[in-house]
Design goal:
This protein is of the alpha/beta class. The protein is 54% helix and 19% strand.
């Protein structure tokens, strides 16, 4: 149907009845269109995974030829762990097994006896969101790693954007590339140390002053400082300054030499990575809250549905075992009818709640005589 998300689901379970139940739950989802692939054995599931590359797998932990942990292990890359879009299905009381499965790469687990259509759909949506966020985090971390590698390569050729500060005179010599990096006009011929401090971000000014003084007064061999500048054309830029202190024969500092590098892209990547981490933590907390609310709702629902069933079952059994006169029989049937209508009302209210959750509730408008309502 138009507007539905298309997903491919691989169900690996040796029970045909359970596979059919999951299939029915998924095909009743109005938000997504599912292509369902099924396997009854672990090896068959591994083959179908490679063949179809599904969006998600529902994996029964107990299979005739191998357990779920072995399936997860064989799906993992030998050199780099993957975030597998897999939900492990366990039996009642197998929570420790589920934890081991998640450590091996699964994203979530469901207890077989407690699976509902809403719970299955919630678990699938949560798993796909978690995999997407973690994949983005991995990509950011790889980008940071490559950035750091490029930085190390740049340090090898440190003459590119270099500077040299004569400590006694505070005269500083810059390579031409620093003019563009810092936003100065090369036609002016020189950049004074005071000029650099004037373009420092106000929040970094005091710290950088302290770091430079500490390196010189403390005779620290290596200098390192990360700071922001206000570039006249590019706005706020992050600069990494690396240097080495040179001492005289008497042990007094004579010059501080080093290089400047633009690390703005790296800083932005770090900030995006932190945001993704916060999003993942928030998504996981929201999923936990949803699962808890779902469990509480199911417990309450079970009680409410069972309440009208007791008198229905009781009177039905009495009518089968005893002969009642006409008034008693009519009373029994009236009680059964009343409780059936009560249960029908509960079910209708459940359906209305489901429609509200999906934003599908239809409201019928009608005129109302407020006077009669108030009276």
């Amino acid at each position: 149907m138009l507007g539905q998300l298309a997903r491919t689901v691989l169900i690996v379970d040796d029970s045909p009845e359970d596979r059919e139940l999951y299939r029915r739950y998924l095909l009743n989802d109005r938000e997504c269109s599912y292509t369902i692939v099924e396997a009854g054995l672990g090896q068959q599931g591994l083959d179908l995974w490679q063949q179809h590359q599904p969006d998600i797998m529902l994996l029964d932990y107990s299979l005739p030829d191998m357990d779920g942990l072995e399936v997860l292990t064989r799906l993992q890359s030998p050199d780099r762990p993957q975030h597998l879009p897999i939900i492990v299905i366990t039996g009642q009381g197998d929570e420790m097994v589920a934890v081991r499965a998640m450590k091996t790469g699964a994203q979530d687990y469901l207890v077989k006896e407690q699976i509902t259509a809403a719970g299955l759909q919630l678990a699938i949506n949560g798993t796909l969101s978690a995999v997407q966020l973690r994949t983005q985090l991995d990509q950011r971390e790889e980008a940071l790693r490559q950035s750091e590698e490029r930085l190390r390569m740049a340090l090898t050729g440190a003459n590119a954007i270099s500077w040299n500060l004569e400590i006694k005179t505070l005269k500083i010599v810059w390579s031409l590339e620093n003019f563009d990096l810092l936003g100065f006009d090369s036609a002016n011929g020189s950049i004074q140390l005071e000029d650099v401090f004037n373009i420092l971000h106000v929040e970094d000014h005091e710290r950088v002053n302290t770091e430079v003084a500490h390196a010189i007064v403390g005779k620290v061999p290596k200098f390192k400082s990360e700071f922001r500048i206000i570039h006249p054309q590019k706005g706020i830029r992050w600069i990494l300054s690396l240097g080495r202190l040179t001492l005289s024969e008497q042990g007094e500092p004579t010059q501080l030499s080093g290089i400047n590098l633009d690390i703005t892209d790296r800083k932005q990547a770090e900030q995006e990575r932190e945001q993704l981490l916060l999003q993942e933590q928030s998504a996981r907390a929201e999923a936990d809250r949803a699962n808890q609310a779902k469990d509480e709702f199911l417990a309450m629902l079970s009680h409410e549905l069972r309440t009208p069933l007791n008198p229905i079952l009781g009177w039905a059994q009495l009518l089968q075992r005893r002969r009642f006169d006409q008034p008693e029989a009519m009373q029994a049937l009236a009680t059964i009818e009343r409780n059936v209508k009560l249960q029908e009302k509960l079910i209708d209210e459940m359906l209305d709640i489901a429609k509200i959750t999906r934003g599908k509730l239809h409201m019928d408008s009608a005129s109302v005589d407020l006077v009669s309502v108030i009276e």
